[in-house]
Amino acid sequence: MSHPHTPVSSRNLPPIPGPLSAEIRGQILALLPRYPSKQAVTLPALHLVQDSVRCVPNWAVEEIADILDLSPAEVHDTMSFYGFFRTEADRLGVKRLWVCRSLACSLRGADELLEKTAALLGVPVGGTTADGTITLELAECLGACEGAPACMIDDEHVHDISDMTKMTELVTRLKQSSANKH
Amino acid sequence: MSAYEPVLLRRLGKKECQSIAGYRADGGYKTLERVLREMTPDQVTTQVKDSGLRGRGGAGFPTGLKWTFLPKGHPGPVYLCVNCDESEPCTFNNRVLIENDPHQVIEGIILASYAIRAKTAYFYVRYEYGFGTRQIQKAIDEAYEAGILGNKILGTDYSLDIFVHRGAAAYICGEETGLIESLEGKRAWPRIKPPFPAIEGAFRKPTIVNNPETLANVVHIMDRGIEWFKSLGVPPDPKNPRDAGSYGPKLYCVSGHVNKPGIVELPMGVTLRELVDKHGGGVWKGRKAKGAIPGGNSMGVIPESEFDIPLDFNGPGTVKALGLGTAAVTVFDEETSIVDVLYNLCRFFAHESCGQCTPCREGTGWMLKIVERIRNGQGRREDLDILEEVADRIGIMPGTTICGLADGAGWPVKTAIRKFRPEFESYLKEGTRGGVRLKMAGAH
Amino acid sequence: MATVLVNDIPVDIGDEKLNCIQAAERAGVTIPHYCWHPALSVVASCRMCLVMVGEKKPDGTVAMQPKVVPGCQTPVKDGTVIQTLDPKSTGAQQSTLESLLLNHPLDCPVCDKAGECLLQDYSFQFGKATSRMVDEKNTPPNKPNIGPNISLFTDRCIMCSRCVRFTREVAGTAELHVVQRGNHSEIDVFPGHPIDNKLASNVVDLCPVGALASNDFLYKQRVWNLKTVKSVCTGCSTGCSINLDTNKSVVYRLRPRFNPRAQGHFMCDEGRLGYHNVNSALRFTKPLERTNSGTQAIDWQQSVAKIDQSVRSAAQTDAGKIWFVLSPFLTTEEAWLLASYARSISPFCRIVSGPVPSHGVDDNYPKDRKGNPSTNPVKFTIRAEKCPNRRGIEAVVAHFQKSPATFADLLAACDRGEVAVAFVTSGYSTAFPAWGTETAERLGKAGFLIVHDMLPSALSDAAAIVIPAAAFSEKDGTYINHAGLAQTTEAGCVPQRGARTDGQIYLDLLGRRGLVRAIEIRKEIGKAVPALAALATGELGEHGVFVTARA
Fold first, then answer.
1. Interchain contact B440–A (C-beta under 8 A)
2. How many Cβ atoms sit within 10 Å of the Cβ of residue C496?
3. Which residue of B has its CA nearest to C134?
4. Every domain of chain C and the residues it spans
5. Residue A73 Cα, gap to closest chain B Cα (Å)
6. Prediction ipTM score
7. Helix (H, G, I), strand (E, B), or coil: what is residue C198?
8. What is the value of pTM for the model shown?
9. Topology (CATH level 3) of domain C3-97
């Protein structure tokens, strides 16, 4: 889990300008009728923002709070609980590479894989490569145990990353596709 | 026993198994149509109750009985929350269902919603199931288009909306009231009970929380009937007056040090040994198993000598494991250090404790620190006693926490120490590892 | 009638809805607890109040539940049996305490809470003597100034979440929240949104440990050196019951004192931090007389004699030109004595109520999340009327002044040059003054202006005689709040450097012998004034008495 006060890596990135785009705001508002309380839109709104700018900047927390009649602290309370949403200082790279360390994966070498991947990328777990392409994460269990050791790119599983050759291939592929998007 | 024909997974791998066209071609939604036209909600509840179906999420609570806890004649709204958080480590049965046969799950959702008179169902799915989420969303969209969801389903008076709600990678959201809090946009701190969700759940309204596999079973109970369902599985253990039997098919996950990790559908009651040897292809590298977790991390650890237990709701308890859990078996071989296994398990629970109740918040952290220190060769004899004591004292069972996460955190510790104590003791004495060290990065 | 058995002690709880903690308290048994607070929602998360509970059946047998339950979450009914001394109860309590101390820094020597800390108290009463933790503790960073008045010592926090619930449920503005989860959970504010609501500092009182500290009090005193008396906040007409903490006659802290008849459990920051003028170095300490060459200090006997002389000589000409202004900051007893003095001079002396400072409108809590008024049931009100005793003063004035006169009449009379002597009592808060320089100038036109006040002002500059007033913390007396609740306040300090209480001066003016005793005056008032008959008992109790039937 990342700590809000101590970013894992500071890359001196330019600030992300607010406010929320009309599109994101519209998507958030469109979710309101689904739930009997506005607060229930917190998690979907956080997802929408992070999907769009790879983090949830403080101004976005304030805007979400404003839309949902909450205090910014309440939105951040929920946001920080999951250890999933990133602050602006700690924003995600183009791709988020998760390495699972559950028992099923660890028994098949996941801890070593995670350690070596961190070395390969030159970042600590939670950190983002200097070129901004990949953020390395650990996962407690991806639910992909038949493909242990398993990884996940953003939210898609990749099975059987059983050694560093496969991991290196995966990283190379990610860097290439990220470079195109970057 | 003749080879069992899968029911829940029967369409797995078939062409068009994911689309509504394929599902309907296989007879899908016919049960729903018949039920909506011919049965009352209470009749559905009674049939599910009489089938003996018990929840597949971990606790094994009788599903139909849970539905009857809803207040009678409540003006509504009543909600169904589908618990597809499935964060119990080494468990992926619901993922397989929603990725491969989402309409089967949707049919189950509609049947259950009809039975409990819900007009809205929330499909809470863990973030890590991106593909499955898209599959279920696509299937929901198809169902709306086909008039199977929305207003006046299949021309009947029954209407239902299903909304997909994505989680954000927190284990505790699988606890039903943690899920409800998360759904409501709060931190997923489980609620104090009573009131139970059936009385006061999502948005303070009566709510039923069910697991996708459970709901998929409902389809077949309504289709094939109670007798069929009860013909599978195991009747109540006469030696255990609290056992309500383990009927029906079950999805078993096998992972860890086996040759063929995967999922298999079998009638309840297969032995752990058969699951490992036959369906998991045996232990890898020609080695022997040292032990296994019988149903997800929370259930504890058992040695190979106890592999003959049946994996039904009663079986694991007979060897003092916590229970069947999610029926996800993870095997570790004889080369593996039990200290490393326990370290992994403790690390998980320390990371996933929600932090609400003191005994769990502090206990999981402390147990991890102790096990980590033991693993690093600085263990003391008294550490094992402290671990056992802390593990015994946290959880719903001793009454010290709000939810069962702490029980799940305690059982691996106490079972590991009680069942593998000599190995821990020699580890403490020798300061070396008996098996191959799993290199694990430091927690957090 | 419902009877609960607490450790075999029967307690009749009538038809009250109580939990185990409350029922046990009635039996004099403490069930330790942190997260539960009667004014906040129940979360049952600290697990300190775990007890064994059962039921006594009609046939006399007792069926105990097999495991401990949280006392805060468990309601009691007729026949409920609570066993706090059962080994399962004490074991669970010990275990929870051990857990809470695992990551606690045990820095009691430098902690403000030491001496009034529930971790210390419960450890002593229910805990173990030693810790079995040999591993490193978590050391989250401290967060100074999470609000203008509050700092968070993060590592001392036991995550009871009382503070978070307070900002959500009572203040309404929800500035505090929990961040992270599990063993790494912390309390925090969101960047740019400090906890600065007007009720904020209540979280310091609510904090059962030394995590939340008041910046105002931080490192000023060890609490065991403080002397605590029961007092009443003078900041507004809510009249919050408070504990006044002093040491060597210096006020260090005000804390709310629970009073269901007044304000409940809390108080506002305005009131809490409004005591500083009490300790001001600018306060008058000696009577002052204006002479042609400026002001000079005179002694008390002289001042009393001069006041009496000027009043009596004016009365010989026209007592109707002598005015007494009773400030709503006076206690009822003081007002009674001064008014009695006025009447002893002449039935024609005029007695008026001093101006009532009012600021904005009544400020109700909880607010909505954006700080605007909400439609939720009101849990706390900061009143627009910024004085403690308008109703007490009005009752006294009404008793003595049959033909009503007002402060405005006095000003008009000053303007016409028809005031021979004006005796103006003040004591107003500098934050909400009752008059500006213009009013002071008009009062200055009185032939002889006597000002009784604590601090120099334009009014005291215009006075012929200034007598130092005592602060609320220095006197005993009675205030009657907006709802007619009469509460007594107790002196926690002696008046500064030889000063005297207001009541003593008025007693001297009256020529009554001895020392002023508020309780005797109170009885006197109660007997004499039908509207204040409720004061006749003298002792008004911890929660005060209503002088009139409640509206």
1. yes
2. 20
3. B370
4. 3-97, 107-125+135-279, 288-546
5. 11
6. 0.95
7. coil
8. 0.96
9. Ubiquitin-like (UB roll) (3.10.20)
